[in-house]
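Researcher: Batch entry, complex prediction.
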Amino acid sequence: MGRYVVRRLLIAIPTLLVISFVIYAILALAPIDPLSQFGADPRVPAEVRERIRDSLGLNQPWPLRYVKWVTAMFRGDFGVSFMSHSSVGDLIAQRLPNTLAVVGVAYILGVLMGIPVGMISAIKRYSFFDHAATTLAFMGFSVPTFFTGLLLIIIFGIKLRWFPFIYSSTLQVHDLASLGQQIKQSIMPITVLALFDVATIARYVRAEMLEHLPLDYVRTARGKGLMERFVVLRHVLRNSLIPVVTLVALGVPAVFGGAIVTEQVFRVPGIGELLVTSIGNGDIPVVATVVFIFAVLVVLFNLLADILYAVLDPRIRYS
Amino acid sequence: MATTEARLTATTVKANMLRPPRSLWSDAWYQFRRHQLAMAGLIVLSFLIIATLVGPYVWPTKMDAIDFAQSLQGPSADHPFGTDDLGRDIFARSLWGGRVSIAVGLTAVIIAITLGMTIGSLAGYFGRLDNPLMRLTDLFLSLPILPLLLIIIYLFRDTLRAMFGPEVGIFIMIVTVIGVLQWMPVARLVRAQFLSLKQKEFVEAARAVGDPDSRIIIKHIIPNVLSPVLVAATIGVGGAILTESTLSFLGLGFPPDVPTWGRLLYDATNFIEIAPHWVLFPGFLIFITVLSINYVGDGLRDALDPRKTG
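Model: Structure tokens for the complex:
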């Protein structure tokens, strides 16, 4: 087990290096000048522009810049934004709490609601509840999150005026009233993301439970006179949740990806929004770092999923 | 009496012999028709495809006819979906946009399936290629898809626009990028099927007859992996349509003069307070299309699963 974890960690490091290289190469080889907006200004003389390029290190060959970028990241230095001239690390540290407050809460809610919904669907298969849950889950996958978001804005933000539809980042939570406001402005983005998560997780839990329900060990549990509640919760659910745990871990990076869209709809100033605006500004250091953080999330949670699977299921033995 | 009976049996036997043999596909079609939601999805989807193909020629209002007197109107008999800020007919724009969105979905999936099948069958059939190709698949699976799509499109769209023109250039780029970042699940699926199928007797028989590897792969193994790939492809079309609309919604898809459904929504967000209809109709079309595709995929999965046929 320990050796397996170590080996997986050793594979993860070169994977991340290759991904960081791919990201940097795409950005460096692109036919676009990071100073194009600045350069379009005719008041900037050519030699000043050249000096800025020099000071940003843009005149060096890009493989060299890549090596510098990666080694600096190892020391925790993510570079300086071209646009705001503040450190990329600070920018991300400012934005991350907003993303986590929305995405994190939504995902936890999605998991907490998805498991019981999927469980009831499986036990009461083909019942009204199952049909309703299945239909809603299909809708959940099929509707783009930005459309759900806009729909909620039209209904609850504009027609009913229940919730504000632009997320205010200046809001400080210091008393009950401001906490209420914070909750009010988070409800819509959280709902949008949670709906999608509930759909995915409920479908998966249902499929897993249905696979386990007709197995022999369930009949044995019933045969020895165990109450149905215990049969389901202690035997079927526990075994069905093993693959679900890995799905939940694997889903985390995708959830952050989905947050890019939701943050854009509700103007939540999170890292997804930072990425989209930085792409628009051609702010290469910020874009490279944020995309790399997404890659780290994917690799990290893939690793976590594999390790959890090995820990939870004693039948899985890695040599 | 006896003779008529004999004649009757003879005719039934003859009728049985004349009836075409039941194939996998006719069985699947029989099974598929019993899945009501999948049939409903198929009907809605066919209707949408025909509407987007024929609609722009039949509908009298042109999609780029500007009429400022009619701007931001709600739905009416002349403009069933209302009008946008320039007074253009949203119905006509949605019809045209559906054509682009569906074409993007189909083409991207064809690219993804071709890549996935090629890599999956090579990895599954030739043991030497298995490890390197699967490492490559794992690497692609570790890429952050949406952020990468965004930066590639932002960085390369001007070049492609210059090379192939604004519409074709962006189309080629979006379709390629979505396809190249979506082949991995298909490759894994095909590889897994190949690993078990290449041990089977019929492959051994083909090899004994002297068939070369290429013929064994194409003629003997691939037909056996087609049904799961078909299901994955169907669902993939829905996914690709969602991805395209997401990119357009973030302002990184087609240019404003190509009204895909996502682009219509992106343009509509600034007018959401005064013209909610502009958001509702294109969004609803994306939803209905993808929902129908997902139901068709679900129906296909059930219909093509031989364990369920009975």
